[in-house]
Design brief:
Elements lengths: L1 E3 L9 E3 L14 E5 L2 H9 L4 E4 L3 H9 L4 E4 L1 H13 L5 E6 L4 H7 L4 E4 L3 E3 L2
Parallel strand pairs: 1-7, 2-3, 2-8, 3-4, 4-5, 5-6, 6-7
Length: about 130
């Protein structure tokens, strides 16, 4: 299980962006994170920029997969469905539960969720 942003585990942060121009403000080879935006995801995919998408519905998950997102960041209410779909369709990208609660480690482990993205693992681009 991936634990990104937990203080006990070394990690490379994700960089939250709002627009393509924000990518220039991130370190090279970093993973950018943004709310689902199909045009921005398409551009990242074309330019081989590792990206994570915060998805809020199954349709967005499927588009994100089709665009080769590295990570799919979801809330707990969608994580179980998304993980089953990812397993069934053999996604290369990883399902990450967005959390601030260390107790979610047990939930994720018991339900086969690929990992957790703790909010401390997200840097905001300025």
């Amino acid at each position: 299980m991936l634990l990104i942003g937990h203080e006990a585990i070394a990690f490379k942060p994700f960089y939250h962006i709002h627009a393509y121009e924000d990518i220039a403000k991130t370190p090279s080879n970093s993973t950018v994170l943004f709310d689902f935006h199909i045009n921005l995801a398409h551009t990242c995919a074309q330019e081989n920029i590792p990206f994570a998408l915060h998805v809020k519905q199954i349709k967005e998950l499927m588009f994100a997969h089709a665009l080769n997102a590295s990570y799919f960041v979801l809330t707990k209410d969608l994580a179980l469905q998304a993980q089953k779909i990812a397993d069934d369709y053999l996604f290369d990208g990883k399902i990450l539960l967005l959390s601030n609660d260390e107790n979610d480690i047990e939930f994720a482990a018991l339900h086969g969720i690929d990992g957790i993205l703790f909010e401390a693992g997200i840097q905001v681009c300025k």
